[in-house]
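Lecture notes, continued. The same structure-token format from the folding unit now serves as the input rather than the output. Read the line below as a description of shape only.
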């Protein structure tokens, strides 16, 4: 049985970033990352819409997003060979019959100190001439929204983790977890692992992993999100913004001349290799056609992912109050990519007994044990 200081269950963006952050701070630490699939990031991380929007997730998530920005813009030397983010911009629109939605969004931008500009009809048409008139009367332009190269970011974390001495085991589902004295004994198809601290970064399976470890679940709910990739005529310009309905019914963004279209669905589901539902796809395309005069030639691809939330829709980062050697890194919702650098730094500091740069109390697992969740 191989022995480690810390074993991380899950090698998606949460586990990969935390493993990297731990070894970047404490190179002598012995850390193993246990990934159930043969390919890390196969589920949620590999199915992200991949953009950075500073206020996405609300005021309690924004501190993590804002604190992650310097890492994205200026990653550590040697971390990644390519740029992690690239300018995109976001156009937040609303139907003429839905007053008030942009005003609420404006207040969010102002409270968070996020750059934005209110556009009139002419400004909206310049950004996206395909919008139908009833969707183009006014909008908010968010210049700081950016694309994130999720694959490059995730692989850089994993590559750096291994380079610093971390061990990544794939095909290593934590099938049996037990306390053996002051250590965890974890049985996987790739071998048995022992560790003083167990980190639960298992995404949709976070509650399942807790139950296997004899720790009470905290109520992580997977919600299905659908993406339909369509070819349109004319092709989507490379420099067009991501377009979001401020009412939360649709968003779409360009990619290689095509469009990724999502109905912004959040359908409760169970942990599994989720596939897109035909009805959700139909809703996405219908909403897009009502919003834009932009003929769809064909569906080029489709997929779904599981966004994982605690009851109050905030991340869960920190030790379990009933078992301090069990550390939660879960519930990242739809903003796990854009908050990864700051969330990982927070988690690593806590695991190493250091003071985090951000206040971790709002993300503590204890809040979900006391009925404090909203």
């Amino acid at each position: 049985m191989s022995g480690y200081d810390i074993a991380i269950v899950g090698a998606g963006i949460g586990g990969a970033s935390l493993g990297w952050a731990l070894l970047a701070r404490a190179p002598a630490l012995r850390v193993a990352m246990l990934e159930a699939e043969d390919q890390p990031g196969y589920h949620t991380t590999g199915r992200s819409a991949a953009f950075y929007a500073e206020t996405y997730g609300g005021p309690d998530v924004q501190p993590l997003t804002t604190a992650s920005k310097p890492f994205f813009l200026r990653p550590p030397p040697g971390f990644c060979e390519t740029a992690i983010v690239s300018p995109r911009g976001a156009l937040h629109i609303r139907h003429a019959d839905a007053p008030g939605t942009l005003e609420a969004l404006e207040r969010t931008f102002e409270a968070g100190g996020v750059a934005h500009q209110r556009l009139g009809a002419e400004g909206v048409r310049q950004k996206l001439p395909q919008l139908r008139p009833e969707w183009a009367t006014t909008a908010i332009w968010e210049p700081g929204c950016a694309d994130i190269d999720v694959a490059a970011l995730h692989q850089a974390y994993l590559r750096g983790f291994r380079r610093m001495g971390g061990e990544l085991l794939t095909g290593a589902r934590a099938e049996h977890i037990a306390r053996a004295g002051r250590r965890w004994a974890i049985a996987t198809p790739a071998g048995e692992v022992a560790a003083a601290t167990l980190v639960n970064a298992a995404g949709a399976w976070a509650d399942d992993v807790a139950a296997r470890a004899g720790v009470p679940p905290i109520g992580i709910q997977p919600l299905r999100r659908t993406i339909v990739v369509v070819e349109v005529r004319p092709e989507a310009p490379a420099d067009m913004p991501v377009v979001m309905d401020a009412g939360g019914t649709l968003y779409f963004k360009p990619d290689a001349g095509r469009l990724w279209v999502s109905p912004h669905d959040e359908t409760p589901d169970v942990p599994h290799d989720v596939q897109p539902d035909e009805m959700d796809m139909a809703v996405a395309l219908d909403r897009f056609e009502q919003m834009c005069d932009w003929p769809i030639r064909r569906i080029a691809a489709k997929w779904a992912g599981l966004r994982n939330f605690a009851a109050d829709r905030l991340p869960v980062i920190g030790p379990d109050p009933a078992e301090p050697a069990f550390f939660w890194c879960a519930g990242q919702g739809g903003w796990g990519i854009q908050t990864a650098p700051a969330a990982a730094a927070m988690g690593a500091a806590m695991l190493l007994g250091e003071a985090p740069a951000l206040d971790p109390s709002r993300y503590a697992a204890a809040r979900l044990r006391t009925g404090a969740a909203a």
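Point for the exam: The radius of gyration is 21 Å.
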